[in-house]
Amino acid sequence: xxxxxxxxxxxxxxxxxxxxxxxxxxxxxxxxxxxxxxxxxxxxxxxxxxxxxxxxxxxxxxxxxxxxxxxxxxxxxxxxxxxxxxxxxxxxxxxxxxxxxxxxxxxxxxxxxxxxxxxxxxxxxxxxxxxxxxxxxxxxxxxxxxxxxxxxxxxxxxxxxxxxxxxxxxxxxxxxxx
Length: 178
Ligand SMILES: [Zn+2]
Fold this sequence. Notes:
The protein is mainly alpha-helical. It has helices at about 10-15, 20-25, 50-75, 80-90, 100-105, 120-125, 130-135, 150-160, 165-175. The longest helix has 26 residues, at about 50-75.
């Protein structure tokens, strides 16, 4: 953000992020809070303690190990680095989707493609009727796992176990182009 914190530092955002991400970031309105406050997120009080720091590091390390199959699989695909990064972000659900934007007070949370559900990672990339139609058009539907998943990570692990490299390439490239 700019020095006053009232608008994005366009030059810096474009310098750090790729064109697509920069455009998305620059379209996000900035919360009109004038003063910043330091808060330690991993503890409900917002105050850092050694104990909460230790727990956070432990949970982060396990999360990284859990994600490794997703990262290793998609990073080994012979495709663009931006698609590798997209797959990693998908595993972490690191996108400014409707539910997160609504929690920050920026949107109503509805899926921008169908307007029929709250836009979570699983909805946006798996359950949305528009996405299902796209999977159907390229004949990927029969390889996708059925059932309920609690996160994109769980879903991706199941997808990885069912598809060969060529199918995974098509799968992730299709999602990246949505
Ligand atoms: Zn939708």
